[in-house]
């Protein structure tokens, strides 16, 4: 029953009333022990359901998905504070053994001796080095050693702890083990915080005699890795960081698809055919901040082995000050800025795909705002996102971002802002959305799997929209209902398709994109499938589902195949490139790729409605249409009015490519229905509809 209450936010009113009745009838039969055996959020949510406090149940579900397991535990009393006042019996807030969870992170380098750095704490309780302790035991077949533990502050480790309430800056430590790693080492870490004792065991893998030490050196432009002549690879998002021979130079900026950009933030695994280790294992005695190589737009830190990670990693971070990083500091920063908020300013804040993009309909709208004399701050996750000329890039979660959002009069987004934003009276928010939907979205999905955090954020978003953009009349009939929007709907075409409509078959965007991709006059096929809700890889990430054998298409037709995974499944796509096949998932502009393509192969993606502007051939490859219909559902019948042939296999797609597509009339009809307003002038009409025409123009 507690598990059902966790997802009560998905229930309609009759479903909620039935759940309340069931819980209220059962609750009197539960003992106090029964209640306390549940995790604190479950017991409080269950109690709140029993007395029909849905707002509390929804708040707890949102907190669970947004903030994770973190909550505040008072020292001494061990009373739990969940972040918001909750009307429940006091005894429910007394932390039980299972509520007091240890978090232990370790990093290992060196073969003899072995250095271990770690951060250990009880979640929710601030670590106090004058009263709390960390003890370490290391065991091999030859016995157990108990090294001296040296505590040291590490503000970066605190920022990475995931703690929203407790300050764990003082919870970091290091030890030297006078052992060798010819066999595994069982590391037992015992943390004692405010009388709570927890022991965690971690197995450090053995290193064989082939291990090579990786030396990480700072250069003027990046880092250089050497490993005694061993060929190294760096698993990365960019092609330039994906391969190389030792010494491997990794510039802080690299060319991607003809554009110079800063390396994206993230963790990059350093791999080779032999085991690796850090050349300087004593580096683990220093804090993460002290170990970082400082560049203009990022920090790079070499890391040793951690559970579930490579032997050696490079962690790339944005240059946000440590004082502003992490959930706890973000909470304090938000409180500070909101408390001292001034009047709204004649500026705009825009965001595209949660800060990871700089295109879509947001880009032409942003340029149009600048032309109207309205300064634009473009929010980016890191400096690898190249924003349009004339706008200011602002790092997400930075102090500048919070200041900009709090004071901007104009807001533009194609998805949603972070969960923690609070919209202000007088802000004018244009929601451009990100495509005409074929598949059901939002409230129209019969069995939604959306989290409580996302659901709550979207509800707040929809209430804040002044206007919602739809590409066509059909989308205008779907989006407001599916997104629970009462905003004015603007139907003037999609600004993102202006460039596509104006470019034609030999325009500058098409030529420039093909040149950047190294393409000539050959046939270019763009394969752009969408993601599947239920398809997951072994790590639980959304899997990239491909029904097209791109290599076979190239072999049979001579076409170059561009493969673009949906961003939701990009992390699990693996290696896609091969002779005649180019992975363009990381390309920053889908519109440019559509302009470069001669043929689009897709499935249920909204790109079919955008590519319709070109009236070039499309193929819908949908062998799993029945399963997708049953799982997600469609608004339209794919076979009723398709933009091109509907096929179920690579061979059928190849047959269409080799024998020609005779569905020109279908393509014209499809464009007339779904893209009649995409004529190259949508941006101006949308801005006029949103803000009013500019006087004198």
TrEMBL record:
Localization in the cell: Cell membrane
Superkingdom, taxonomy of origin: Bacteria
Protein name per Swiss-Prot or TrEMBL: CDP-glycerol glycerophosphotransferase family protein
Lineage: Bacteria, Bacillati, Actinomycetota, Actinomycetes, Propionibacteriales
Annotated membrane topology: Peripheral membrane protein
Family statement drawn from the similarity comment of this UniProt entry: Belongs to the CDP-glycerol glycerophosphotransferase family.
Main location: membrane
Source organism: Aeromicrobium senzhongii
Annotated keywords: Cell membrane, Membrane, Teichoic acid biosynthesis, Transferase
């Amino acid at each position: 029953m507690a598990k059902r209450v966790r997802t009560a936010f998905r229930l309609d009113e009759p479903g909620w009333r039935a759940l309340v009745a069931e819980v209220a009838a059962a609750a009197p039969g539960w003992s106090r022990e029964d209640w306390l055996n549940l995790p604190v959020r479950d017991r409080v949510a269950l109690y709140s359901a029993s007395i029909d406090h849905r707002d509390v149940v929804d708040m707890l579900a949102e907190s669970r998905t947004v903030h994770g397991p973190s909550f505040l535990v008072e020292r001494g009393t061990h009373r739990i504070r969940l972040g918001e006042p909750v009307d429940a019996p006091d005894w429910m807030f007394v932390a039980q053994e299972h509520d007091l969870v240890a978090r232990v992170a370790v990093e290992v380098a060196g073969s003899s001796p072995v250095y271990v750095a770690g951060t250990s704490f009880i979640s929710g309780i601030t670590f106090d080095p004058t009263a709390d302790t960390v003890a370490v035991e290391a065991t091999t077949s030859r016995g157990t050693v108990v090294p001296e533990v040296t505590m040291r502050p590490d503000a970066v480790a605190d920022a990475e702890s995931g703690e929203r309430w407790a300050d764990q800056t003082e919870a970091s430590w290091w030890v030297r083990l006078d052992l060798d790693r010819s066999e595994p080492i069982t590391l037992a870490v015992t943390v004692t915080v405010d009388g709570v004792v927890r022991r965690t065991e971690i197995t450090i893998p053995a290193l064989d005699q082939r291990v090579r030490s990786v030396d990480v050196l700072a250069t003027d432009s990046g880092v250089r890795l050497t490993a005694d002549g061993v060929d190294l690879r760096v698993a990365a998002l960019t092609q330039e960081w994906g391969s190389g021979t030792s010494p491997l130079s990794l510039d802080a900026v690299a060319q991607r698809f003809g554009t110079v950009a800063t390396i994206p933030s993230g963790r990059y695994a350093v791999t080779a055919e032999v085991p690796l280790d850090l050349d300087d294992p004593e580096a683990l005695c220093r804090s993460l901040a002290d170990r970082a190589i400082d560049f203009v737009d990022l920090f790079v830190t070499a890391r040793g082995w951690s559970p579930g990670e490579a032997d050696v990693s490079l962690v790339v971070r944005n240059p946000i000050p440590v004082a502003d990083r992490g959930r706890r500091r973000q909470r304090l920063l938000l409180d500070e800025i909101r408390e001292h908020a001034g009047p709204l300013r004649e500026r705009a804040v825009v965001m595209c795909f949660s800060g990871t993009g700089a295109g879509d309909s947001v880009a032409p709208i942003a340029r149009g705002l600048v032309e109207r004399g309205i300064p634009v701050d473009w929010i980016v996750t890191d400096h690898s996102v190249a924003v349009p000329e004339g706008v200011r890039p602002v790092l997400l979660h930075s102090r500048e971002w919070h200041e900009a959002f709090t004071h901007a009069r104009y807001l533009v987004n194609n998805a949603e802002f972070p969960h923690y934003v609070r919209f202000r009276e007088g802000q004018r928010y244009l929601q451009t959305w990100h495509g005409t939907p074929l598949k059901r979205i939002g409230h129209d999905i019969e069995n939604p799997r959306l989290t409580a955090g996302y659901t709550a954020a979207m509800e707040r978003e929809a209430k804040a929209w002044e206007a919602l953009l739809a590409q066509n009349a059909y989308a205008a009939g779907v989006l407001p209902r599916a997104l629970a929007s009462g905003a004015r709907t603007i139907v003037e075409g999609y600004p993102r398709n202006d460039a596509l409509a104006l470019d034609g078959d030999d325009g500058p965007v098409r030529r420039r994109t093909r040149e950047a991709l190294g393409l000539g006059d050959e046939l270019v096929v763009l394969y752009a499938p969408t993601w599947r809700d239920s398809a997951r890889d072994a790590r639980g990430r959304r899997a990239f589902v491909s029904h097209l054998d791109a290599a076979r298409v190239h072999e049979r037709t001579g076409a170059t195949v561009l493969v673009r995974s949906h961003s939701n499944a990009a992390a699990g796509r693996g290696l896609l490139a091969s002779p005649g096949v180019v992975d363009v998932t990381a390309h920053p502009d889908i519109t440019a790729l559509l302009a470069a393509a001669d043929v689009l192969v897709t499935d249920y993606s909204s790109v079919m409605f955008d590519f319709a502007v070109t009236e070039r051939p499309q193929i819908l490859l949908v062998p799993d249409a029945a399963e997708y219909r049953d799982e997600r559902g469609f608004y339209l019948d794919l076979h009723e009015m398709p933009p091109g042939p509907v096929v179920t296999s690579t061979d059928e797609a190849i047959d269409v490519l080799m024998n020609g597509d005779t569905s020109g009339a279908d393509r014209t009809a499809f464009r007339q229905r779904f893209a009649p307003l995409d004529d190259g002038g949508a941006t101006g009409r949308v801005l006029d509809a949103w803000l009013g025409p500019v006087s004198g123009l």
